[in-house]
Design brief:
The chain is of the alpha/beta class and about 240 residues long. The protein contains 7 helices and 8 strands, in the order E-H-E-H-E-H-E-H-E-H-H-E-H-E-E. The chain has an 8-stranded mixed beta sheet with strand order 3-2-1-4-5-6-7-8, sandwiched between helices. Helix 4 links the parallel strand 4 and strand 5. Helix 1 packs across helix 7, helix 3 runs parallel beside helix 4 and helix 4 runs parallel beside helix 6. It is globular.
Length: about 240
């Protein structure tokens, strides 16, 4: 088996996902750039290669069964296995003034759309990639979450957690709960799975508001993607350590 580790990062054409791909590439990983948009995907691969990263394009829409199946088959042909899966692709859903999703007036279709990408999409991709991950000697799965998923922080009036986001925030809480279920299922195996919080990062996702750069936002996911065999699993982690559920 080749010593070069193979990684797939979803939503890797821009922002935090791109920087995760950059960081893993700098560590010597061969990186699959998963993205829906062909032009942005190919541009990201070109930029990564120019920076010395061994990158390859993976057409991938996490909401589509056939797209995800095709992506797994492509990685099978390209590499024969997968060592790292970073489920980074995510959406916030439509918001009102002040980036608010008011639960009392929320369009249920917005909730369905957000959950389809942020939760079901992660399950869909993870399960499709599991046969490839099981061929790795040290498989790692990272689900990119958010501090707004923390029920403890959301419920504490003394903690500034941002606007009410009645679709996005619960979708990330749901994602965290799913992450724990995978960790329980993987108990006793060599698969480590964790949720990573990038912090408030200035990208197009946040309207470029936030004190952190995409590079800073990528750091925790990169760390979790390269954990030693005795590393944590089923945890929710930010730069400063464990986040309360």
């Amino acid at each position: 088996m080749s010593e070069t580790k193979i990684a797939l990062v979803t939503g890797a054409n821009k922002g935090i996902g791109y920087e995760i791909a950059t960081g893993l590439g700098a560590l010597g990983h061969r990186v699959g750039v998963g993205a829906r948009d062909e032009a942005r995907r190919e541009s990201a691969v070109e930029k990564l290669r120019a920076a010395g990263v061994d990158a390859f394009a993976v057409p991938l829409d996490v909401t589509g069964d056939q797209s995800v199946t095709d992506a797994a088959e492509l990685i099978e042909r390209q590499a024969g296995r997968l060592d790292v899966l970073v489920n980074n692709a995510g959406i916030s859903g439509e918001t009102g003034p002040g980036w608010v999703q008011d639960p009392t007036t929320l369009d249920l279709d917005v909730v369905r759309t957000v959950v389809e990408t942020n939760v079901i999409g992660v399950i869909r991709v993870t399960n499709a990639m599991l046969p490839l991950l099981r061929r790795s000697t040290s498989p790692r799965i990272v689900n990119v979450s958010s501090a707004v998923a923390s029920l403890t922080r959301q419920a504490d009036p003394d903690i500034e957690i941002g606007p009410v986001m009645a679709a996005y925030s619960p979708s990330k809480s749901f994602l965290n709960a799913v992450t724990v279920q995978y960790a329980r299922q993987f108990a006793g195996t060599n698969i480590l799975i964790n949720a990573a919080c990038p912090g408030l990062v200035a990208t197009d996702f946040t309207g470029f508001h936030g004190p952190r750069t995409p590079e800073q936002g990528a750091a925790t996911a990169i760390r979790l993607a390269t954990l030693p065999d005795d590393g944590p699993t089923g945890s929710f982690i930010e730069d400063d350590g464990i986040i309360p559920w």
